[in-house]
Design a protein that fits this description.
The protein starts with a helix and ends with a helix. The protein has 4 helices and 3 strands; from the N terminus they run αββαβαα. Helix 3 packs across helix 4. The protein has 92 residues and is an alpha+beta fold. The radius of gyration is 13 Å and the shape is globular. It has one domain. It binds zinc ion. The site of zinc ion (ZN) has 7 residues, from helix 2 and helix 3.
């Protein structure tokens, strides 16, 4: 996991699209966790939206689900085509 941490960050950032800020943090339980934030919301009101999920495959999908929900709710028209395709295939 440690060796692939930055690679996972890059992959998640690429999938989440240009508005997302993706970090893999070490949580309080010393497990890795995805932290996905919204750069547009930070820029607009200084208070960012973010979500935090364990850095597992399930955690990744949960974080991306939350992110897509946020995009749909606040930033309709901002697209993250790779992510939408991934979510569709995950729910298929
Ligand atoms: Zn936002």
């Amino acid at each position: 996991m440690v060796a692939s941490r930055s690679a996972r960050e890059r992959k998640a950032a690429a999938e989440a699209g240009p508005l997302a800020t993706v970090k893999i943090d070490v949580g309080a339980d010393s497990q890795f966790a995805y932290k996905i934030g919204c750069s547009a919301c930070v820029a607009k009101c200084g208070r960012g939206w973010s979500t935090y999920r364990p850095a597992t495959d399930n955690g990744y999908m949960a974080a991306m689900d939350r992110w897509i929900f946020h995009l749909n709710e606040k930033h309709l028209g901002v697209d993250a085509p790779r992510l939408r395709a991934r979510i569709r295939s995950a729910h298929a």
